[in-house]
Amino acid sequence: MSLYQSLLEILDTRSFSTLWYWIALLGFWSAAGGRVLGLPYDIAFAARQGSETAAADLETMTPILARRQMALTQGTGGLIAVALAALVLALLLVLGFFYGLELAQAAVFFALPLCLLMLMRLALARRILRDAPAGEDLARLMLRHRGWVQFLAMTSVFLAVLWGMWHSLTTGVLGN
């Protein structure tokens, strides 16, 4: 086997049948579930368990992180980002499910849940800035958000696995 063939095998566009896609998908969701608005979830967990240091850190850092999250949506930059995300998502959906491009289908299983995750983070940031929860309420809110992120992760991975199995079973070995 030549170096060229080995390189093409690593960069294969048959996403659902390669281990790298699944490692990247699980790694993405593992990283997304480890932090809430950029704050490690163990701080919220320790604050809920009664740690005064963790509660102080949580109450100090959360409004800062919420303001940073909301700053991304202010002005025309937020509108441009939403329009660009919608364009890319629509392009991936058309290429993947209308034209049958497997790489685009696999990218949809990253991009669509990522858009939902961003909406969830914006809603959390808006609620934190609007209601200014503190103490136990803030810790509960952060941990509840993490639970919803984990649910979104499990659902998206499950749907990707179902679609990937169906695609691999109905597509021939050479992509026919």
UniProtKB/TrEMBL annotation:
Could you tell me the keywords of this UniProt record?
Membrane, Transmembrane, Transmembrane helix
Which superkingdom is the protein from?
Bacteria
Q: Where are the transmembrane segments?
A: 20-38, 77-100, 106-124, 148-166
What protein am I looking at?
Component of SufBCD complex
Query: Lineage, please?
Result: Bacteria, Pseudomonadati, Pseudomonadota, Alphaproteobacteria, Rhodobacterales
